[in-house]
Amino acid sequence: MKSDKIKFLYCFNSLAFLTLAAILLVGCEMPPMDTAQQGYRGTGMETVTNPTIMEKIIAANQAPPSTPPLPATGPKAGAVYQNVQVLGDLSVAQFTRLMASMTQWISPEQGCGYCHNLQNLASDEVYTKVVARSMLLMTIDTNQNWQDHVGDTGVTCYTCHRGKNIPEYVWATDPGPKHVARLTPAMQNTAAESVAYSSLPFDPFTPYLDDVDDSYPIRVISDTALPTGSRKSIKEAEWTYGLMMHMSDSLGVNCTYCHNSRAFAEWEQSPYARQNAWHAIRHVRKMNKTIWDVADILPDSRKGPLGDPLKIYCMTCHQGVNKPLLGARMLENYPSLAGKTGE
Q1: N or C: which end of the chain has fewer CB within 10 A?
Q2: Are 321 and 159 in contact (CB under 8 A)?
Q3: Phi and psi dihedrals of 309, rounded to 5?
Q4: How many CA atoms lie within 13 A of 236 on its CB side?
Q5: What is the pLDDT of residues 14-30, one digit of tens each?
């Protein structure tokens, strides 16, 4: 009898081990998986998705209904209200509609008081109003000048905020876990969601997406034979892999969404999405510079452990899909967020 129990436990433990191994082999997700071919056969250019997980991601990426447009006739908001610095060319009706929509997108619980002194709406004493003005300018700039990234679909405040004061997915420089004094940590080999719990550096965002020059390259290898021009270190290659894992996770795609697996470095053999991603990285860098512009007025709750402001990256907008909000064209109903006054 005892021997039978031992055999049963042995078989049960073996089965449990094999099940765990199978889960790990498919990326910590239970099968079955779906695949969709994105390029030539034999190149591995296919997207792998988990139907169970995608159901939840699709449900979380639904755009809210838009309020009916209002006429552009009548007095302008800038002539009626004080201290309207960005949207003054809108009619009072248009201005009020957009403010009501922004309230639902960003502060549905707090209402107008989240950004305004309700006794003096013109006042800038509430810091969130100053931040909101900066974010409006950033949104308009995005829709006017970054169509290589956002296309004609564009973005609105809801693209990132989704009904929350602070977007759910933001980042700040990560100092990592505590370590022995007077030792320089490697900043890796720590289980971190940011790099899919790999041994890669857990903060690839600070070196590549923070306040860096637009021309700063993201490259795994040098483009010269000798270390004379663009010398790339192993650490930079690890940062690059970490950032690519974040981008893959953010868009819910494989590496082959942007790269041809037979020649990762070749632009001529890469899908168009790689060009879009090139512009996206530079766009994110510029938006993060805008966030730094209001860093001095942000409270500590809106900053990271080292005092830098909470910033954006790919997951902020995409949230698991290759097109934010599954490509919903919300901007068409709010053209003022692209600098247009007519509706």
Answers
A1: N
A2: no
A3: -70, 155
A4: 12
A5: 444 444 444 444 456 67
